Every structure is written in structure tokens, then in C-alpha cells.
Amino acid sequence: MPRWRPEDVNAAADVIAGRLAALGIPVDVHQPEICLSVPLSASVRAGGKSYRAKPPSSSLPVPQGRSAKLVKLQANPKALRSYNRDIATLFGGSIRSLEEVRALVAGNIVVMSGFGNPALTSLIEEWGGVGLIAVNPGVDIHWGTCTTIWGSPDLADLPRKPKIPVVAVNNPDGQELMALAEQGGEATIFTEMLEGWFPQKIPVVTIPGSVEPEKFALVHGHYDSWDVGVGDNATGDATLLELARVLWNGRADLRRSVKIAWWPGHSTGRYAGSTWFTDRFALDLDENCVVQINCDSPGCRWATSYHDTRAFTESAKIATQAILDVVPDAEVKTLRPPQAGDYSFNNIGLPSFFMLSSTMPEHLRKEKGYYDVSGCGANIAWHTENDTIEIADRDILLTDIRIYLLSVLRVANAEVLPFDWLATCDEFLATIAQYADASKGMADLSAARAETEALRAAVEKLAQAAPAARNAAILRLARILVPVNATREARFRHDPAYTVPPLPTLAIAAELPQLPEALRRSGGVELMRGQNRYVAAVRAARQLVEEAVA
Predict the structure, then answer these.
(1) Which helix (H) or strand (E) holds 90?
(2) Single residue among 386, 412, 438 that ends a domain in this structure
(3) What is the per-residue pLDDT for 498?
(4) Closest residue by Cα to residue 34 from 57, 2, 59
(5) Phi, psi (rounded to 5 degrees) for 167
(6) Interhelix angle 316-326/394-412, nearest 10 degrees
(7) Exposed, middle or buried by CB within 10 Å (0-12, 13-18, 19+), for 179?
(8) 166-169 and 186-199 beta bridge pairing
(9) Helix or strand or coil: residue 204?
(10) Residues 304 and 362 placed together within one structural domain of the fold
(11) Which of 164, 194, 224 is the last residue of a domain?
(12) Following DSSP, what letter does each residue of 31-81 receive, concatenated?
């Protein structure tokens, strides 16, 4: 079980604040109450045997046990850590219909390969399952979280708190449990959790700029970890401390300010620390924050590739160029950030890049026989007791620190903010074309396409505007285009922790051919409303660009 308590997290924050004080760097330490779910113990009893297990945070506590028949679901190996709620993605065709899976799952405990993540947990609960046993891929059991609630819940979020117990077991034990399920066996799940609202410390450093001090870049990462947590995320905390030291000493040369923040509640609160900060300082972030840069799992052993670098399209060039300028022969590929990490700022609309940092080259990961994990530079010590000091690599960490520092400086010191909204318009047009093609003629997305083309034409002229007007327009474009591309909820709320497709209000277009005939008219209504929202947002974006150029 984890060797820490909520008060131990505050002690870690004091260590960070003490290091900053020793460097002569002022630090604000906020101490909000945030909602946490801390795992205490878990086990599974089945076939006359007790199996070791770990409950993800937010699993339903059932200390007296919950018993039911075991049923096995066949997971898609390519979706082991997917946050997707699509049946075809999760099960790779082994489940043919919603009715089939509900008939199989209802009233039973499901055992299946993968991780007990929020998307899967919410689906098992919706289908009437009474428990979930996630069979991890290796001999170790990984910690995690299973709630779709992002951050501390408000009243509207509370109904989504998991109502079933969830546990993870290792692969050898899981194979036994799946074999037992095939024989019609039963199981009992036991879980104990510590849940409630706890005061947790959030250290924040503000390094003032000298030209536009009110505008700032936000660099951040979590400092709470499972067990020792060296690669996830002590290396990230060290990176943030070094950034604070270097930037503080060179603050006279900063154009804009830089804020550096360390979050608690990353897993046990489903990003409750960063979400509190987003909520508490929402209006300042909306008005003044020019970018958010996430720092998680840098500097891990063997992590010399950058083929899994996360960035929204408008920020991809910044991230890519910073990596190549530090590591000229690096393999760099930028991908859309998933609904994970401490990306708690999408609904405000911040340009964003980085999440996990360098990672192991794919050929090396496969040579080692490592399965896919979500941190530690692809080391499978991620979220286990094995994430200890040997997971860190001093030279790789120094490289990653240089990449972070260079990318922060390029945003903080640019005369004109370096975000490429033409690339984002091109992405939107490609997404619209993809959805229209997938709809097989059932969706008319011409209004969305025409308005996006008009926005692109306007953005092409933005270079004609004075730098101050360009910066204001670039910032306001982010407030409109990031939410329309990455969120379903209204601004200043937080989407559930499962996959959001590109341009989510238009995504139903691609699903129309697969909908039952009885639901297609309702699907058309959803698309009409979604396209209205999209067109209105893009039109507003075009108008603000035209005003800046006028």
C-alpha cells in the first residue's frame, strides 16, 4: 500500500518551499481543501484463494466485500491504457453490440485485461456491472485512478463518483481469475479507502517580467507520487526547481512573467490541485496566461526519444523546435494531448504543450518486452514500488531541463506570441473533411467548412497588425479555439476524464452511419446543435482577427 498520507504530501511541499527559500526565491504556498481518495488496502477472494490487489483512487470502498459471479471481457490489446469509451476501440470487435455487453455484464464482476481507468469504470457501471478487476500486463500491480470527475467535485459532478469497487491485480493472478470466470466462478472484492476533503499545499513561484509583467507563462507539474515516485514525478519536480533558479537569476531579461507551480492531488484527487488553481485564478488565467507547459516524468533512464511529445497544433512548432535545438538528431513527433495529465486549463482556452517528456525509443521498449505505460519514460516501474532512484538518469534529465527552459524562454520573451493558428485552421479543416467522409453523405458540414476557411483567410492577414494587436488577437483566439477543439463543457467547467475527440461537437457526424435507424434523427439534431456552436465560435474568432487587422 502507499507509504504516505495526505499530511505527508504537505511535508513534501515544505521541502520544495525550503529549497526555493534557500535559493532566495519568493514562493506563495496556497493551502486549499481539495477532495482526495487515498487507497488503503484491497484483495480479491475467489476459488478458495486470496489474491493481492490494489484499488485505484476513487474506487468504491467495500471493506466488508462485494460478491458476484465473474465474467470475462476480451480487451483490445491496443487499448490497454485507452481512455476511450467506444466499444469497438475497447474490445476490438469481440463485443458486437451494446445489448450484448449489457446482457453479459449486468449483475456481475467483470475481469479483463488493462488498467482500471475512468472510461472503462464508468462503462462497466453503466452496463450494470457490480465490480471490476483490471488485469495489469505484468508481474507488478500499478496504482491509478478510476473516476471521471476532474478535480474536486461540484454538485453536478457528484453523480459520476464511481459506485462500484475497482481493483487491479497482476497478470499471473489475473489469468487465474479469468480462467475461473470461464468456469462460471464467483469472486469477492474487498477495498478500503481514505476519502474526504484535506488541506493540501500548492507552492507557486512568480518570476516577474520586465516589459509585460502582467502576462505570464505557467509551467507546472505534480509533486505527489505513488510510493517513492522518482520518475513520476520527482524528476519533474527537480526540473521545475532548476527552472525557478535559472529564471529567477535571469529575471531582468524576461519580457513576460513566468509562474511555476507544484500540484498535489494528481492521482488521488484526479488533478484536484491544478483544478483548484484553475478555478481560483480563472479570471487571471483568462486575461493574462499566454501558455501552460506541463512537466511530468522527464529525465528517466533510456528515455532518449521524443516521438510521443504532446502539443496542441498551434504549439507544436515551439515544442518541436526546442527539442531539435537541444537534441539535433532527436526523433520528434507531436500528438494531440489526451484527456489526462494536469491539463486542467482546456476549458479556459490556454495554448498548451508537453505532458510526459522524453520516452524510450519504441524499438528499445519492444526489445525489453515492456508494455505501454503512462509515464516514467516508458519504464514499467511507473506507478509501482519500483519507481526508485535507478529510474532517473542525470544526463537525460539535464537534456530535458534544457528543452523546458528553452521553450519557456521562447514564449516568455517573444515580441509576438509564437502560436500558429494557421496550422490549427488546417487541422480543423482536415477534421471536418474526415467527419464528412465518415458520415457517408449523412452529414452536411459545409457551414463549418466555409466558416473555417474564412477564419483561415483572416488569420493569414494577421501579420499585418501591430505586435500589440497581434498578441491580443492571438491570445483571444486561444480562448475560443482551444475549448471548441478540446472540450464539451462550457468554459470554466471541467470535462470528464475520458477521451474528447477533435472538434467534439461535430464528432457525431462520423457516428451517424453506425447509429440504429431509430436514433439517426436524434443524431442529426445533435449535429445541428453542435455545428451551430462550432460555427458561432469560429465566426467570433474571425471577427476578432478582422478587428485586429483593421
Answers:
(1) helix 87-91
(2) 412
(3) 87
(4) 57
(5) -140, 160
(6) 130
(7) middle
(8) unpaired
(9) strand
(10) yes
(11) 194
(12) --EEEEEEEEEEEEEETTEEEE-BPPBTPPPEEEEEEEEEEE----GGGTT
**CA distance linking residue 237 with residue 241, whole number of Å:** 6
SS3 189: strand
Residues 219 and 244 in one domain: yes
Residue in the block written with cell 452496463? 127
Residue 225 pLDDT: 94
Q: Which candidate, 296, 223, 226, places its Cα nearest to that of 11?
A: 223
Residue 488 contacts residue 72 (beta carbons within 8 Å): no
The verdict on 429 and 398 lying in the same domain is no
Kindly report the number of other CB atoms within 10 A of residue 199's CB atom.
14
C-alpha distances out from residue 365 to 196, 335, 337, 368, Å: 39, 19, 21, 5
β-strands 62-72, 109-113 pairing: parallel
> Residue 361 CA to chain centroid, in angstroms?
22
Domain identity same for 331 and 425: no
Q: E strands of 264-384, at which residues?
A: 289-294, 306-310, 332-335, 352-353
**Rounded CA separation 540/550 (Å):** 15
- Block means of pLDDT (10 residues each) for the chain, 550 residues, are 74 97 98 97 97 97 98 79 70 72 93 90 94 96 96 96 98 98 97 97 98 98 96 98 98 98 96 98 98 98 97 98 97 94 97 96 96 95 97 98 98 98 98 98 97 98 94 97 97 93 97 92 96 98 95
C-alpha cell at 274: 491544478
Q: Which domain holds residue 337?
A: 23-32+200-412
What is each CA distance from 335 to 348, 429, 520, in whole angstroms? 21, 17, 32
Q: Where do we find the cell 498535489?
A: 264
Report the chain's terminal Cα–Cα distance, integer Å. 62
Number of folded domains in the chain?
A: 3
Q: What would the grid cell of residue 489 be?
A: 463543457
The answer to whether 295 and 371 have CB atoms below 8 angstroms apart is no
* pTM for this prediction: 0.95
Residue among 323, 377, 505 at smallest CA distance from 431: 505
Peptide bond into 136 cis (omega under 30): no
3-state secondary structure of 214: strand
What angle is formed at CA 544 by the lines to CA 491 and CA 425, rounded to 5 degrees? Answer: 75
Decide if 449 is inside a domain.
yes
- Distant-in-sequence, close-in-space partners of 5: CB < 8 Å, separation ≥ 6: 38, 194
**Read out DSSP for 446-463?**
HHHHHHHHHHHHHHHTGG
Cα gap 236→220, rounded to integer Å: 9
Tell me the β-bridge partners of 256: 212
Is position 162 within any domain? yes
- Which residues share a beta bridge with 340? none
Residues 407 and 439 in one domain: no
**CATH number of domain containing 100:** 3.50.30.30
CA angle 165, 126, 116 (to 5 degrees): 40
